[in-house]
Amino acid sequence: MQGGNLAYQRDGQTFEHGMFGAGLVDAVAGDPAAQDAAEIYNGRLMGGVIADLAGLACFIGGTAWAASTPNSSSGSFDFVDDTRGAIFLGATACLLAGTMTGLTLIASAQPYQWDAINIYNDNAEARHGPLRALPPPAQPAPLAVPAPPSPEPR
After folding, report:
1. Rounded Cα–Cα distance for residues 148 and 141 (Å)
2. Under 8 Å between Cβ of 106 and 44
3. Which of 24, 26, 72, 124 sits a CA distance of 20 to 30 A from 2?
């Protein structure tokens, strides 16, 4: 976390989680498998937001059109009219379909975020060679223990 937002770190460089997860693609660059997972994450987030917005636009447009077209026989604005009622129902269905599609895409993106991070970390040895173990910590020198006092001669 950096400034309350998600961030990724690699080789001392910080990549902020940008819109639609763009920082993750940059953070795992250089590892094709991790980059593929990051791009799927990015694409699903973007697709989810677009589907949500398309459903909302369809609903607003359909509702506005149905409400602005007066009933041909009476000249009033009545949603009971078959045509306008069907358009309003279609606009509502469009909103629900867009919202459900968008939420499904966004929810299914999350595992790809963690996959990209884990794949990148798991492939570190292949990219950089085997990790070397750190030498064991130096042991402190033993403390000198004073010799017990010699018994006094009798």
Report:
1. 21
2. yes
3. 124
Q: Which residue has the higher pLDDT, 67 or 119?
A: 119
**Could you give the angle at the alpha carbon of 146 between the alpha carbons of 145 and 148, nearest 5°?**
120
> Coil, strand, or helix at residue 24?
helix
Query: 3-state SS of 43-103?
Result: HHHHHHHHHHHHHHHHHHHHHHHHHHCCCCCCCCCCCCCHHHHHHHHHHHHHHHHHHHHHH
CA distances from 77 to 41, 93, 94 (A): 45, 21, 22
Between 103 and 132, residue with greater pLDDT = 103
Overall average pLDDT of the 104-128 stretch: 89
DSSP 5: B
